[in-house]
Amino acid sequence: MTIHNKGFVSLYITLLALIIFLSGCEDPGSVGSGFIDEPSIVTDTLTLDNTATENFVGYTGNFGLFSIGKYSDQLFGEVSTVGLLKPIRSVQIPDSLDIVGDNFSMKLQIQLDSLNTYGDTLSTSEFSIYEVTETWRGNEIKSNSEVAYNSANPVGSFTIGQEKNITVDLSEAWKDQYYPYFSSTEDDADSTYRYEFHGLAIVPESNTNKISFMSSSASQFLILSPDESDTVRVGLNNWAYFMDRTGAVQSPETTSLFTTLEEVMRIDLPLEMLREEYRSKNILNARLVIQENAEDLNSTLAANHSRPNLNLLNLHLGTDYDEAFEYQLTQPEFTASRDSLSTETYNSNITLLLNNLFYGGAETDEIYVGIGSLSGVLRSTQIFNGNAQADRRPKLIISYIE
Questions:
Q1: Reduced to 3 states, what is the DSSP secondary structure of residue 181?
Q2: Helices vs. strands in the chain: H and E counts, helices first
Q3: 341 pLDDT higher than 90
Q4: Which of the two residues, 163 and 24, has the higher pLDDT score?
Q5: Which residue(s) pair with 336 in the sheet?
Q6: Using an 8 Å Cβ cutoff, are 229 and 157 in contact?
Q7: pLDDT beyond 50 at 144
Q8: Torsion on CA atoms 384, 388, 390, 391, rounded to nearest 10
Q9: Which of 74, 85, 209, 270 could disulfide-pair with 239, CB 3.0 to 4.6 Å?
Q10: pTM of the prediction?
Q11: CA-to-CA distance for 69 and 223, rounded, in angstroms?
Q12: What is the spatial distance between Cα 240 and Cα 201, in angstroms, rounded to a whole number?
């Protein structure tokens, strides 16, 4: 024990002498307090002034939901939508169903989206159903399409209040037109049906002040036996809507965004400046920040009125192909999500884009900001563009190590 303590003390004295010697040899004037300078993170905020409002025509057919109704929006104008639908032809009637010839009735069962209503949520909307008189295809319908229907002879009518499921009686005359097609055994029955039978149009009446969204998968036609004890459910073959918008508020400082692509904001990045200033820097993060016109969006919405909510903006790079298809029906290169701390702003991490522009050979300097959607719900918002006050314009925030 005593020997061990003596050895430890001797070692301690030796190490202490060595430290004192090295400290005396240090030249504080040559290296200071360290060998390497501490790196610093620098953040630059660039205002993006070069923006433009672009106009496209979006697709409105064969989505999960389609619009029926009309609404007078103080900010986005008078919006009216007409729904189109057509039953499938190949209906399997079981032998047990008590239907002889055309001795049956037909109904339309409408299932509405329970989450979204655009307009006066407490109002009652009225609709008439008419026979469509020309060929149409859901995949080809766009928001500005015009499809003719026979408005002189309604096939049915209904109202929408607070309920989400409505069953509508359809006229005997229309049922009698449909019967020869679904009962046909001819080889060309499908082709004949496609070009000769055009389905129905659901048209809002003038006193309607909300737009509802009809489910394409849960809505169906019903074939009922004379005593309505037996039912055959008939799905939809095609569905779509077309719309008309007038009187939207226009401002040079803002761009309105619609899921139908009526307006999209294009941002032209200052590519040469970015390459010159930041190509040699170690970029940690690059964020695109876009501000929403929350004041006007809120002030133009009356009590009990609603617009379907929006939490994401789509950011597409410029394309030489069908813009409506690219900006609405394909996945965006980036998305901008609503900021949890400031709900009036959207943020997108575009670090990868800048790296591709600097080192990957990408050449496009155009970012298209929109809200194209495959859901079929009519959504809209308004954002500030490059003409707005400086603090409201789009920003590019770049952080790098210096």
A1: helix
A2: 8, 24
A3: no
A4: 163
A5: 313
A6: no
A7: yes
A8: -40
A9: 85
A10: 0.86
A11: 26
A12: 10
